[in-house]
Amino acid sequence: MDIPEKPKVRTHLVRDTEAGQRLDNFLLRELKGVPKSHVYRIVRDGQVRVNGGRSRPSTRISAGDKVRIPPLRVSHSASSGGEIRDYRFKPDFLFEDQDLLIIDKPSGIAVHGGTGQRVSVIEQLRLNTSGFLELVHRLDKETSGILILAKNMEALRQMHIRLRRVGSKSEVKKTYQALLAGRWQGGQRTLCQRLETVRGYGGEKRSRAAPNGREARSVFTPLELLKNYSLVHVELMTGRLHQIRAHAHAVGMPVAGDKIYGERDQNRHLRKLGLRRQFLHASRISFSHPRTGKEVDVQSPVPDDLMSVLVNLRSQPENEST
Description:
The protein is about 20% helix and about 25% strand. The chain is of the alpha+beta class. The protein is globular.
């Protein structure tokens, strides 16, 4: 028989080791077994208070903050079964020490939970650890490749400082490989279209080029020209939402297979060649370690599902219609 815990209001004093994390992440750890949707609802309803005031899920908590947590009934069965383990999620561990964990994220799984997401990278990894673990940055659900997580708050802070630095001052170099729809003209090119975040017809966020948008710079370098497509190397100099995808779309060469920025007919043709998602892979990242200062340089090869698409494109006759 399930025996509910006696509900009661409690106030949590944020410790130094907890400072800097988002309120929703903090609550999801504190309220094990409570459905994620319910956690977000009590924040929206104002039942969770930080220093007596209403807050958003994205609010960053600080050491010494007082977080009011409302009474919630959590059954023992809910506590043990509140999280879903996906045994198909088996990322390669590319680097790990006392401060950082770097994995090779497979496509098809979101890095963070949210509406409509039953499982996520961060939740799956937390099932195997009782310590601190936070995303340093994000990748789109359908993008594969290198993803960094921090194992303590100081490492998270230091990595965020590095990521906020732009251009030549950046201590984090992030590069991707992408297949673009169209033939690239010329050599290396820096795309500098400013980007603003908007909502699409389905309510999803997307970026579009706009004069009053935020600064965004991506360096595109052609690697291989195929029939009607171009394989490129992209270095991010800033980190905006869907930056590579939005910049590629802005110059009329969307990322192959992109369901938001791409073209339906092109994507339909690519599906016949085996492409089931956007052709975008985080292939390399390098930075100075937040504790030791030593260079960390991690690489990830293009996965088999994308390589098979390249093989199929290379074998296409020149006179074949797309």
